[in-house]
Every structure is written in structure tokens, then in C-alpha cells.
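In the previous chapter we treated chains in isolation. Here, by contrast, the input contains four separate entities that must be folded as one system, with a combined length of 880 residues.
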Amino acid sequence: MITNYTPWSVDEIARRVAEDIEEGMYVNLGIGQPTKVADFLPDDKDIFLHSENGVLGMGPEPAEGKEDGDLINAGKQYITLLEGGSYFHHGDSFAMIRGGHIDLCVLGAFEVAENGDIANWFLGRPQDIPAVGGAMDLAVGAKEVYVMMDHVSKNGEPKIVENLKLPITGEKCVNRIYTDLAVINVTDKGLAVREIIDGLTFEELQAKTGAKLINNT
Amino acid sequence: MITNYTPWSVDEIARRVAEDIEEGMYVNLGIGQPTKVADFLPDDKDIFLHSENGVLGMGPEPAEGKEDGDLINAGKQYITLLEGGSYFHHGDSFAMIRGGHIDLCVLGAFEVAENGDIANWFLGRPQDIPAVGGAMDLAVGAKEVYVMMDHVSKNGEPKIVENLKLPITGEKCVNRIYTDLAVINVTDKGLAVREIIDGLTFEELQAKTGAKLINNT
Amino acid sequence: MLNKITKSATEAISNIHDGATILIGGFGLAGQPAELIDALIERNAKDLTIVNNNAGNGDTGLAALLKAGCVRKIICSFPRQHDSYIFDDLYRAGKIELEVVPQGTLAARIQAGGSGLGAIYTPTAYGTLLAEGKETRTIDGVNYVLEYPIKGDFALIKALKGDRWGNLIYNKAARNFGPIMAAASSHTIAQVSEVVELGALDPEHIVTPGIFVHEVVHIGAKA
Amino acid sequence: MLNKITKSATEAISNIHDGATILIGGFGLAGQPAELIDALIERNAKDLTIVNNNAGNGDTGLAALLKAGCVRKIICSFPRQHDSYIFDDLYRAGKIELEVVPQGTLAARIQAGGSGLGAIYTPTAYGTLLAEGKETRTIDGVNYVLEYPIKGDFALIKALKGDRWGNLIYNKAARNFGPIMAAASSHTIAQVSEVVELGALDPEHIVTPGIFVHEVVHIGAKA
């Protein structure tokens, strides 16, 4: 089969997410792919990155040799702190999340259902060890939840589905999905496609999606 | 009637309470009479005074002219802070109280019942305006509750009673009562008199008390 | 560049609407945002629900707000004080609603509001008049009362220093309800004695991170 | 003169008994009280219940405590990490019990433990496997799960500086669970990088007041 499109790279998805983040927003970037979004945030806007281990105002990676084991993010990577940033304990940090003070959280996902349900914490296979971290708090607590993921799994299975097959992280909490193929809003009327990558048709996108899409491009 | 005794003054009761406070204790002194206890704490022992408005390590009254409107106690009197003291917000302050971190609280009272019930917040008359402050939190939260009060009311009515007549502040929480006439432990077996002021007999004390006393002097 | 510094108290409180629930910091006068309250009196918003530890002292600040007839209901722990005569008169005349909440329960309900909890079981006030009609539960042999969160449409608080991101530090016991009220309100306005440059507040010492603060107003020392 | 400074880690942990519940600070390695844990391994207490965000990294600290066979059960939010192989093996061999708790619920339960609440309703995990069998309630249209406090017989935490009254300050993101675990435990032991004179810590900057701390052990920088 001849394809006329090149899926977005992780960097390209991250850049696309970053474009939608507004000045003044308090943002939590989940572990994994979402962490990349930080690299594409505009330097001239004040956007506040929160890390659930007690940091607000995360800055870029430290220069080599400047790493501090006491200054890490939720993914346990070395970070820096911007001027105006602050430290606080885990209770206060999750008060920020659960209390609805985080404007936006960007999460990775195994699956997203058309009603906004998200599964991203546990595959539930016999060999898996459950480990949730802050995923469930972020899913229910952030004002908006964006998901950033590949459109289909490594086996070509749709990751956007009618109903989750995997254990759920949070109910009806995803507002928007950014994949390597499209940007899709989760609305009361269904999954509204806002943007498709160049060269891919709506019909082709629908074929790779496990739930009905609405063409709003 | 000839009496052979002089009731303790408020200062004398306060001194008596202070004698029972041990080094290293975290202590909250209620508004009113109990505040006096601070004046009789030994200088050579570290005893930590907590004020529910966010102060630990209260020191003595400031010298004249050194008063600071931002450094007050729960009774809104000017205070000082000892070296090693700290400030914190009301959430943390009541976590200390409710969480059982305060070793001892000394409260004033209208009435104490023989089972340790205390009434000290509201007389409940038509003209009264209810105002509780931190009294209920202290009553249930402190590890030990001492009451400091006159043995009888201004009308000569016993303030130590079988059952409270006034609205309750906290159930079964008083451990010891210091009055101008006696020191009485609240025990599972009843009110055990530990000490009577000079010149007063146990029978005379019993006559001024609305519940049965046990003589453990 | 994000700048939460607002020029005047009048501008800061200009969105406060009739019927709003406002958490006002302070324990007595310590930490009371007097100038923000003055601006609110000028605005003459009506039917306010006020949450504060007290119900006003003397004739100024919160007491003046009550006197101006702006307040429908007050939620507090300790209304009755030697100088709470304005409240006392309104209350006895049936012109103001009062909800008395134990001070620690007030703090805990505000913290629940700020941290997204739906309700909490607290041992305070069990068996008392203040728990009448409330749901209770015995857990591990201790009796608790079910209490619901308090959230503000607005918080008015007073801090010592603030920066343009809304980070705050406080002065001594004037901290009291400020940090927890800031976290529990949709729109928090802080009056500060000093505005400092971003970075001037040590990140280890910031008590209220800017995420909880929406406007910072500089109120200089009184002449 | 009250002095909470204890000479050695060995002495500090000497009262920890078999079957104790121990809250151990740290998020990964940041804030993990490694030397206190080493002393605990030496003591060889058994059947411990450990509360930590993770389940150990590599071969040292908490991981070494697990390897030593001291731990019956671990309560944590994120056991599985790239270097959690010691835990992974024990878990798969059925040699350790695991209670997975969402990180924010872990924090909130610890805070409830420290502040005397009997239970809390949290929205986190509603409808998920982690809420299975738990009581739920809908309040104002939001679904909540009832969660109970976590309290420790002991807390082992790491701070930057401490004084003889037990006042503590932390370093950057190593603060994490330290302050809330200190408050939730009957006996809190803090290892600090520096012991300072009483009064050297500014009362405005103290993060954990000494009321929550029972022993302070100086652990110098590693040679």
C-alpha cells in the first residue's frame, strides 16, 4: 500500500501540543512522551510547569555536571528551577492537582475511549506489577487533560476505542488527544477531529480508529 | 460560718498546674485563666507553648513598646517567640491539635462532669452568641486535658457535676481538674481527689462538689 | 510576561459580585486585609457570605463591611469578642446569618476545599450542638462528624511580600488562614506590604506558591 | 534542656520493633534516609510494613531493606521502576505484600493520619481497580472514594538541617513526603546533613516544626 503521509514524530506531536499551551497556564507533563512538550514551549511566555514531587516552575535540563540529585522531576530526571519557582511537600503538591489548580495535564495513554475515559497505568497481564504513581490524581484533578500518544499500537490496533479494554485510570476526563496522525477533541457529541496530518484522509484516519470520528477539520 | 482555709488565687492555681508540666511537653494554654500558667513555668526547662493561631515556642509578654500586632496568641494578646520557635498556618496548627501532637492542654470550664465531659464554650441563654474558637478541637485533640477553674460558680453552685447542664464542648476528655480548692483526677473509677488546700476537709470539699469524690489525698 | 500585580485594591476587587462567597484572612486584626476590605465596602457588593475566624473587631475592616450591610451570612469560629459590637447588634437584630464552626474544623474544611476532597470525618464537635443534624460515624472506636469543604469565589488575604507570579511570604502569626484560604478560592487577591522582583523570594521559603494567587496588590505602610 | 539530637543512626532506630509500620521519606533516591535504613537493616527487624512512594531502587537503601527480608508489606504508589528488580523478584515470588495507592491518595491518607481525621472522600481512583471494594459516595455530582488514614509507628526521613528541638528544613525536591510523614508518625527520626544551633533556623522558614520530630541524627556527607 502506498501512503502519501509521514506520521508526526514524537517531537512533532510535542511541538503541536506546546502550540496550544497559553501563557500563564499551570501545566503538569506526565512521564514519558509528554515530558518532551517542555522542549517546545515558547521562551517568551510564562508557562508554569508543575512536578508532582513538589516543584513548581521547572526549568530546562541542567547543564552537564550541574545535576543535583535533590532536584528531579516526577520521572526522576534531573531538572532546574526557574526564578520564581518554589518547592513544597507532597501534600501541597497533590492539593494543587486534586484541588483543580492545574490548568492542564498532558498524559500518555494506552487507550482513550470516545467518552474521554483513559487507561494509562496498568496492562493487567499476569506478569505486570501495578504501579500508578500520580496518574489517577492527574486524570481527575487537572482542569483539562490532553493525551499524547501514537494513534495505533505497535501491532496496529487502534488506541482510540469505543470502550476501554484495559484497566481504567480515570472516567470521562480526557479533553483532547494528540496522536502522530491527528488532533481530536473529546466532545459531548463525540470525537471531533480538529486536524489531520498532511496526506492522510479523514476516511483513512477513521479506519485506524476504534470509535466513530466527526470531521471538524 | 468560720472557715479555716483560704482558696487558692488564680496565680496559685496556675502555679500548681505549672508544677505538673514536664520538660519537653507541647502545651496549649486556653484563653483566660489558663494563660496565667505560662508565668509559672520553670525557666530551666524546655516546655513548648503552642498557640492555635500558628505559633509554637511562645515566649513571655513583650517589653513595653516592643508589641507587634502580627505576633499575638489565641487570646489576641501580644507575645514573643523563643529561639527555636516557628510559625505555620492554621491548617498545620490544628493538625498539631487534632492529630494528637499536643501533650497537654489547659482549659477553663463552666462545668466538668464526673466522666470527664466538659462545658466551656456556650452558656446557651437567649442573649448569648455562640462562639467556640478552638475549644472543641483542643478538648478532643490534646493527649491530656487539664481544667483550671473555680470550684464553685459565683452563685456558689458546684461546677463539678454528675452530668453537664450546659452545652457540651467535648465528651470524656478531661483528665484532671485544678480548682481554687483541690486537684482532682478524672479516673475510670470516678473523681479522685489528689490534693486539698490547707484547712479544708474532704467532707467540706465534697459538700461543694456536685458529684461523688474519692479521697486519694 | 505574566504579571499578577494589580495597581489598586479597587481594581483588584472589581470583579466581586453580589452573592459571592469570600474567604477573608486574618485572626482578629493580624493578617486581616483591611485595605482590600475597604475597597470592597466602597464597591458595595451585597449578599456576601464571609468566611473568617472572627466577625469583626471595632469599627474598621471586617466590622465596617458588616456595618455597611454587605454581608448576608458569616461563617466563623469566634464571633463574640469584647469589640465585636457591630456583629453583635446585627446578629441580635436578626440581620445577619451566623454559622459557627470550630476553628480546627474551619481550617480543615477550607483545606478540603483547596485540595479537592469531597468531605472529611473529624472528631471535633462530636456530641455537641455544633454537630446537631450532621452525619456521624465511628471509626476504630473514635466518633467522627462528617464535614464538607468550604470554597471561596474569592479570597482576600494579607501577606508580607509578593512577586509578579503571585508567590507569597507572610509575617509571623499574620500567616494564619492566608495560605489555606488562597488554596481554597477560585480567585485569590493578596495585599502585600512589599512587591519584590521575581527570584527575590527563596524557593525554599515561599509559603504560598503563585498557583494559588491571582492578583497581588501593593499596600504601603499607612502614613 | 531538651535535646533531640541522637548520636548515631544505630541508636536512633534502636526502638524499632518487629511488625512496626514505618513511613520512609523520599521520592526515588531524593530525600531517602539511606543511612537510617542501613541501620535498620543491621538491626534486622522483621515483618515491617513500609510506606514509601516507591519500592526501592538498585541495591541500596529501601531496596536493600527489602532484600534483607525485613519487609512483610509495602504500601506505595509506584513500585515498578527500571531499577526495582529486588522488589520485582520478591513480589513475583509471593514473598512481599503490595498495596498500591495513587500518589495523591497516599499523601492525603498520610495527611489525614497526621491531622487526626478519621477518613476522607477523594475523587482519585473512583471507578478503577484501586477503588474496588471501597465505599464510594457522590457529593455535589462528583464521585468519591472513602479512604482511611495512614499512620506510622515510626517515620524515617531525611532533611537538610535540624536543631535540638527537632525543627527541620529540607533541600529542594528532597522535601517531598518528609513533612507529612513526620506529622503522621508516633516517633519520627530525621537524618540531617547539618545540625545547627537553636535559633539558627528562621522561624518563618522552618518547614517541619519540632513537635513532629523526636530524634535528629547527623549524617555527614559521604567520604
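Chain B has a mean pLDDT of 97. The first strand of chain B starts at residue 26 and ends at 29. Compare these points with the single-chain example from earlier in the chapter.
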